[in-house]
Write a structure and sequence with these properties.
Layout (H helix, E strand, L loop, with lengths): L1 E7 L19 H16 L6 E5 L2 H14 L2 E5 L7 H9 L7 E6 L3 H9 L12 E6 L13 E6 L5
Parallel strand pairs: 1-4, 2-3, 2-4
Antiparallel strand pairs: 1-5, 5-6
Helix pairs in contact: 1-2
Amino acid sequence: MKHIVFVRHAKASKGDSKTKDFDRPLTEKGRQDALEMSIKLKALNFHPELIVCSSSKRTMETAMIYARNHGIETQGMLRLYHAMPETYESVLQDLDESINSVIIVGHNPGISFIADIANPGKTTNLPTCGMIITKISIEKWPDCTLKELNLISIEVPSET
């Protein structure tokens, strides 16, 4: 059994003509939401061993907040920047076999598409910093297919 938490990056600045989309930082609300959700994940007794994320500024910042709270390593991957579900699946299939629980921080629409795979017809747009907590009945990561995900819960930040 493996556990996967998919996280949509926290709220980012709108950016301007000087800031590339890739370089947009989190807002203060985004940082607060990421901390809230990281704490919530810990309260749900989920113990990730690794965080994999898009290498954009906002996903790296979100991942680092989770990493500090959970005391784990973060790996940034350019291929997760605006990735679709097939790329997330490929990243999971490449994970080291010693990892049993992972957080993947990414972007919409890919993350919301994964929410719909895990919870068909019920999740169309996961809000920023929303989490899709899943498990999958596999022993080895190369056997991972998103269609085999079993939804544990979908968690979203509180409104403030």
